[in-house]
Specification:
- By secondary structure, the chain is α/β, with parallel strands linked by helices.
- It has two domains: about 140 residues, 3-Layer(aba) Sandwich (Rossmann fold); about 80 residues, 3-Layer(aba) Sandwich (Rossmann fold).
- The chain contains eight helices and ten strands.
- Keywords: ATP-binding, Nucleotide-binding, Transport.
- This is ABC transporter.
Length: about 260
């Protein structure tokens, strides 16, 4: 069965302050896959997520969403599908409760009754293991719990609008700053949400964490020097002869990856 491409980057380049970050990148993201983008810090991994999400314009090249070329950024027009982004920092409103954070868009922009939105929020919180937390504030939660709240917010949708369900979730370093046990909880949750009713079967993740890469990826791409240097299945990581990949996973300071002191 042929895989369905959801998003395509064709010859995409991006620079900041005249410094090139991405150089004519070609990347296809397929429905139902778990893709993890890896590489050293500052190589444009999070930039790819923001280009896919439509938060940044490309400098050159084209972005296709379900076969249709995107013009401009997400604010410039109708998008053929919803793309959810989970930021590295949970990015919750400290003055709002968990319920108000997760249901924020529906409370502000839908015509759903408040009690119905509350039910939807409770259902998403249950999916991420945070039942009974609706009335707490972010300051009352651990870092891992705040991450899970941001997952629930990314997945909540208006049931009256079938186009509101996200068809892809973008995770920007979801286990950064977490202890090993909390990281395991998040890794398990990402996989569980991929297969759960009301979740999302396609995701792209950026990560530096070895365990997160190995436990959440089906396909891996390695970004360095503005280019995709390697691509393969997660179980091919330990067998590849690619010197960049071998250096990265061995944490060696010797190799083709240049370190800035």
């Amino acid at each position: 069965m042929e895989k369905e491409p959801l998003i395509e980057l064709r010859g995409v380049s991006k620079a900041f302050g005249g410094y090139p970050i991405l150089d004519e990148i070609d990347l296809t993201i397929y429905r139902g896959e778990a893709l993890v983008i890896i590489g050293p810090s500052g190589t444009g991994k999070s930039t790819i997520l923001r280009l896919v999400a439509g938060l940044l314009p490309v400098d050159a090249g084209e972005v296709y969403i379900k076969g249709k070329r995107r013009k401009g950024i997400i604010e410039d027009g109708h998008q053929p599908m919803r793309i959810a982004l989970v930021f590295q920092q949970a990015a919750l409103f400290d003055s709002l409760t968990v319920d108000e954070n997760v249901g924020f868009f529906l409370y502000e922009h839908s015509k759903l009754p408040r009690n119905r939105i509350r039910e939807l929020v409770e259902a998403k919180l249950a999916m991420v293991g945070l039942q009974g937390m609706s009335d707490r504030y972010p300051s009352q939660l651990s870092g891992g719990m705040r991450k899970r709240v941001s997952f629930a917010r990314a997945l909540i949708a208006n049931p009256d609008n079938p186009l509101d369900d996200p068809e892809i979730v973008l995770y920007d370093e979801p286990t950064a700053g977490l202890d090993p046990i909390s990281s395991t909880v998040i890794e398990d949750l990402v996989r569980r949400l991929q297969n759960a009713s009301g979740g999302c079967d396609t995701y792209v993740m950026v990560s530096h964490q070895d365990s997160t890469i190995r436990r959440t990826a089906d396909r891996v791409i390695f970004l360095y020097g503005g280019k995709i240097q390697w691509e393969g299945k997660v179980d091919e990581i330990d067998n590849t002869t690619n010197p960049i990949v071998r250096q990265f996973f061995s944490a060696s300071v010797k190799g083709p990856i240049r370190m800035i002191d």
